[in-house]
Amino acid sequence: MKFILKFYPEITIKSKSVRKRFCKLLQSNVRNVLRRHDEDVTVQLDWDKLNVATTNESPQNIEKLIDAMQCIPGIAHILQVTEHEFTDVHSIYETVAPIMAPMIEGKSFCVRVKRAGNHDFTSNEVERYVGGGLNQNYPSNGVKLKNPDYTVKMEVRNNSLYVIANRYEGIGGFPLPAQEDVLSLMSGGFDSGVSSYMMIKKGARTHFCFFNLGGAAHEIGVKQVSYYLWDRFSSSHKVKFVTVPFEGVVGEILENVENGQMGVILKRMMMRAAERVAKKMGVEALVTGEALGQVSSQTLTNLGIIDKSIDTLILRPLTAYDKQDIIDIAAKIGTKQFAEVMPEYCGVISNKPTVKAVMEKIEAEEANFDFGVLDKALEDSVMIDIRDIAKETQESVAEVETVSEFGASDIILDIRSPDEEDENPLEMDGVEIKHLPFYKLATNFGDLDQSKQYLFYCDRGVMSKLQALFLIEQGFSNIKVYRR
């Protein structure tokens, strides 16, 4: 079985030296990816295409190869072909007729031919001869040059005839690593997954950085979507996954920063941390999923304030995209299934966030922040080869029970931030209520009376579940989630 891989048009218009480099990169990438499925695959480079061949023609193998090629950046489309020899136009017809007869039965059709090389016939002459022969000798609904039911496609190249059985669309873009490496800030939601995909498609080897605000369960979810993006679209190259524990940074912001400025300052802290991770890796740019005006921290003013926190270039592929556009892309590339179940956090963002931050006020609030907490988060960060995630994600995550009723000896532990708790105090009869902000749970929960059963509570239930999962994995068994 043979395939012809056509280059994305933007590759073909590059200068000769750049085009040659891109094409060789693509050849290497295709070989690396396909040999994960079929060790006997061969990949040959021509000036305007790649020729892929395999001796394993089982339907399962062909399906895997096609699926893999459709996800390799730099490929415009894939032609599944059979290769034949020919002597003249009539021999072309005799080769094509038995192959295409079943395809045109009961359908209108036309014949389209591309030709390269020196021949004593033209492409139009082949089209007319083959089309006429099929029309006269095989049942069909006749030749129809515009909008036919089926198009018979062939390529004549020097002494070879390629009959095209199927055409499959690729994702386009540039081959990896045609551009420099980037570090993508991953939350696991719709935006960060799509922005990472777009940078991969553009030929930038994309590493992943996760700021852990809520425990092991969320980290595993983000690792899964990051691994999916790598495995699906960029497995030709190794990349890194970095986890930065950010619970302490969030706690420092919640305790020492004015409410309306918290969202912008949290983003500035993330950028500072990401810049230091990127420099350690030799990466020159950061990538975020921010879209203009989507949330309060993503106004033009606030994005400008965030950018001024670091010198490193920040790329935002989704700046002008609407949310539904982003969701549609996520569905197309397969990350929607992850994003739909990825948590969003309560207690992290301001209740009344500023949409037009003022640098002087931001800097004044940051003066109250202990940057030693940020240093500690970076010291505790973990960098792994993304290939190791496959092993980790196979390990089961502890389950946590959710209840809507409580016993007389139970204690409801309100884990919301102080501002949330002050604004809407939790008042219930017949049960003891304690308040311990989520960002203090990891260090302070063990100091509580462990003979009691604790029911974690927050407004949406997401943070409660994640914190409960994290503590259960640390060995605590007296925890449930409470939902009213």
Radius of gyration: 29 Å
Structural class designation:
alpha/beta
Side-by-side strand order of the widest sheet: 2-3-1-4-7-6-5
Arithmetic mean pLDDT: 91
What is the helix tally?
18
Largest sheet: 7 strands, mixed
Low-confidence stretches: none
Strand content: 15-25%
> Using DSSP, what is the number of strands?
18
Dominant shape:
elongated
Range of helix content:
25-40%
Distance between the termini: 60 Å
Describe this structure in words.
The N and C termini lie far apart (60 Å). The chain has 484 residues and is of the alpha/beta class. A seven-stranded mixed sheet has the order 2-3-1-4-7-6-5. A six-stranded mixed sheet has the order 12-11-8-9-10-13, with helices on both faces. The protein is 39% helix and 22% strand. The radius of gyration is 29 Å and the shape is elongated. Helix 6 crosses helix 11, helix 8 runs antiparallel to helix 9 and helix 9 packs across helix 10.
In short:
This protein is 39% helix and 22% strand.
Sum up the structure in keywords.
single chain; alpha/beta; 6-stranded mixed β-sheet; 39% helix; elongated
